[in-house]
Amino acid sequence: MKEDIKTYTLAGLKEHFAGQSLPRFLAQQVFDWIYKKRAEDFEIMSNIARDTRVFLKENFYFSSLKLCKQEISRDRTEKFLFGLEDGAHIETVLIPDEARQTLCVSSQVGCKFSCTFCMSGTRGFKRNLKVSEIINQYLYVNDAMAPRTITNIVFMGIGEPLDNFSNVTDAIRVLMEPKGLHLGKRRITISTCGLAPEIAKLGELALGIKLSVSLHASTDAQRDQLMPVNKKYPLAELMNAIKYFARHEVYPVTFEYVLIKGFNTAKDDAVRLSKLLKSVPYKMNLIPYNLSSLKFAPPLNAEIAAFTQELKDQGVFFTLRKPRGQDIAAACGQLRADWSNKA
Ligand code: SF4
User: Fold this and answer.
1) Which terminus of the chain is more exposed, N or C, with fewer CB under 10 A?
2) Mean pLDDT score of the chain, rounded to an integer?
3) Ligand 1: which atom is nearest the Cα of residue 163?
């Protein structure tokens, strides 16, 4: 059976070719054609010997994504719904601004973690994405948006990236590969709901990428309500793993904190947050909750003002963010939900 050539890292392809008594530099040539010259046909790889091209054609193929739907929001956020080879669907979101073109990629079909505020969590888990299915999200959108190019990648779409650890980290290796796409490591961010052992493991790999953690609460009792993963890895264990990660990496860890009306915006929350974040280099993003159909409601403006003032008083640094792509439901999982309802 033919293998998908884009499931390989450069090191993996070198090893595979060596096992077939093929020269290691062949892997470099193939990477150059696929990721720098964007070839999707072995026939046109003109600096590779004819019989080697025949071997490649007989043993490998190029996977691709099928665009099923594309929407553009008033704030220019673009959402792509892609079909996979097995008929499953994933979504990818492009968030443009003046300085950056950020691509938010999915890492799984569905998600196991059932965060209360997330539509992806309500649809169950189907499977991990392959390395190629992650890379293809980047390739499709980057090709489509030319001459602009993607500058940043965040693993913040459908799925928990650290639950698909090996494929996500291999996809990152392909994205960063100097002989290929050569995306700067500081331009790649993994966002996690808080899988403590994998956060520590990621630190040990020292890939040089950034980590973002969905915190959203200042006590275990609160966080248990929002994120069932907290029952397995409560705040103390999570913060220990983050401190361990921070010892191996240079960039501050980003904490995401969704502001929910009457739930996590009290003075006591600000005080507890200042204690929690004390010993970690961090950035914090505050994001006003923007759905009111589920269990929680968006915060009032006065509530946001009082909470941010309290954070300042406690010496907590933060950036107040605006949700993007609201009119096209670009929060994770919602496009897939729309699609599934219509299919
Ligand atoms: S927020 Fe992330 S981890 Fe939580 S249910 Fe949604 S996709 Fe899964």
Assistant:
1) N
2) 91
3) 3
Q: What is the CATH number of the domain that holds 10?
A: 1.10.150.530
Q: Are residues 187 and 335 in the same domain?
A: yes
Residue 30's domain comprises: 3-61
What pLDDT does residue 119 have?
A: 74
Q: If you take atom 5 of ligand 1, which residue's CA is the nearest one?
A: 121
pLDDT of residue 52: 96
Residue spans of the chain under pLDDT 50: 333-343
Report strand pairing: 108-110 vs 125-128.
antiparallel
Same domain membership, residue 52 and residue 76: no
How high is the pLDDT of residue 336? 35
